[in-house]
């Protein structure tokens, strides 16, 4: 981030397989990368527009929200939108196929929607999540420690438990960020239609992670594997895909083999993930009975100072998470009888059989998603 602020960086021609790349690094109105140099090229001094210190409304009662000085036309969402549209316009007259990855830094904390999107939603209209006042009686000690104190966390990136007022302000600002992305996606799809390639293009909309966003009285995501963090949107549209929705389990790993299958190609040996074709053509049931989640962080858990090293398996009726610390600790939820994950059954003798079955499922999931083709490639 700092190098991009100093000067344009010489960029490799082949960047992770992409031959045309524009980076928007970080989040909110604080972004760097090609975007930062784009601001300078427009005659803008980013230091006059980026961050809380120069915000229109710097003090909002939470360090996670400010009214940015960045106008809509210069905000990162607009830059990403315009770059995507320019790419599609250039591709309109080309017979070559393309893959365009459009990655928005928003919606993400800190919450800094630009222009009209800042006050588009009234915090007073925001309802508290059903689990906002979770007492965490059976939760891990680290979660109880976070939830025991309402208010901003010790740092911008550290999970915390917001007050009601803080939560409503953050949610209203987040909705503004989401709406700005909705508008941008609409303009990108309009450009795709204008290019004439819309009937022969697969469109996928998804996200890399969720956020607690008040569920269980918590905010952010690090070391938190509740449903709020694990569930992400996944929309797939294109030729031969029927309109509809499903509650079948899917994983982000499945996006790649699904795209390969939709293009009529064969996946390489050892590829991770499953082809979701049966869910897209309406031909039938689930393609997986579990989803595996792995989290390892470069920094320790702020609540315990232990390494963040977690493995989770989710099935239709349960979620098990194992935390590696000085000794294994974990979470176990019966999603059929406790869909909001309010009672951790890890130490409940009555749930011993469910815990054993889920531990076995986790072991098989980890074996199944670690494919020999990937190992061979890594060794090579």
If you had to describe this structure to a student in words, what would you say it looks like?
The protein has helices at residues 2-6, 34-41, 76-91, 141-147, 164-195, 227-230, 255-262, 277-280, 352-369, 372-379, and strands at residues 24-25, 32-33, 203-206, 234-237, 291-300, 307-314, 318-323, 329-334. The chain starts with a helix and ends with a helix. Mean pLDDT is 92; it is low at 375-380. It is globular, with a radius of gyration of 22 Å. It is an alpha+beta fold and 380 residues long. The strands form three sheets. The protein has a four-stranded antiparallel β-sheet with strand order 5-6-7-8.
State the gist of this model.
The protein is α+β, with helices and mostly antiparallel strands and 380 residues long. The chain has helices at 2-6, 34-41, 76-91, 141-147, 164-195, 227-230, 255-262, 277-280, 352-369, 372-379, and strands at 24-25, 32-33, 203-206, 234-237, 291-300, 307-314, 318-323, 329-334. 29% of the residues lie in helices and 11% in strands.
């Amino acid at each position: 981030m700092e190098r991009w602020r100093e000067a344009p960086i010489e960029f490799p021609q082949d960047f992770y397989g992409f031959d045309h790349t524009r980076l928007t690094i970080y989040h909110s109105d604080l972004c760097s990368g090609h975007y930062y140099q784009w601001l300078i090229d427009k005659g803008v001094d980013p230091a006059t527009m980026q961050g809380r210190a120069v915000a229109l409304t710097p003090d909002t009662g939470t360090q996670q929200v400010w009214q940015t000085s960045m106008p809509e036309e210069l905000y990162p969402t607009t830059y990403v939108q315009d770059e995507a549209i320019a790419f599609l316009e250039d591709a309109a007259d080309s017979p070559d196929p393309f893959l365009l990855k459009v990655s928005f830094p928003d919606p993400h904390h800190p919450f800094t929607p630009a222009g009209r999107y800042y006050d588009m939603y009234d915090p007073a209209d925001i309802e508290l999540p059903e689990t906002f006042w979770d007492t965490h009686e059976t939760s891990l000690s680290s979660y109880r420690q976070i939830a025991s104190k309402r208010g901003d966390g010790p740092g911008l990136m550290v999970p915390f438990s917001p007050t009601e007022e803080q939560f409503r302000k953050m949610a209203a600002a987040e909705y503004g960020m989401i709406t700005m992305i909705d508008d941008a996606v609409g303009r990108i799809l309009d450009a795709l239609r204008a290019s004439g390639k819309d009937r022969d293009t697969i469109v996928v909309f998804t996200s890399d992670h969720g956020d607690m966003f008040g569920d269980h009285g918590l905010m952010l995501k690090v070391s938190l594997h509740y449903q709020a963090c694990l569930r992400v949107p996944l929309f797939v549209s294109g030729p031969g895909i029927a309109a509809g929705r499903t509650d079948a389990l899917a994983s982000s790993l499945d996006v790649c083999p699904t795209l390969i299958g939709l293009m009529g190609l064969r996946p390489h040996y050892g590829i991770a993930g499953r082809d979701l074709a049966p869910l897209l053509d309406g031909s039938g049931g689930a393609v997986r009975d579990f989803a595996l989640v792995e989290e390892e962080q470069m920094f320790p858990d702020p609540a315990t100072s232990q390494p963040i090293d977690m493995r989770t398996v989710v099935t239709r009726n349960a979620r098990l998470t194992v935390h590696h610390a000085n000794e294994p600790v974990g979470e176990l939820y019966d999603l059929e009888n406790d869909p909001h994950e309010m009672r951790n059954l890890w130490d409940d003798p009555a749930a011993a059989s469910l815990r054993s079955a889920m531990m076995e499922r986790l072991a098989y999931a980890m074996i199944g998603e670690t494919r020999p083709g990937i190992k061979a490639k890594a060794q090579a």
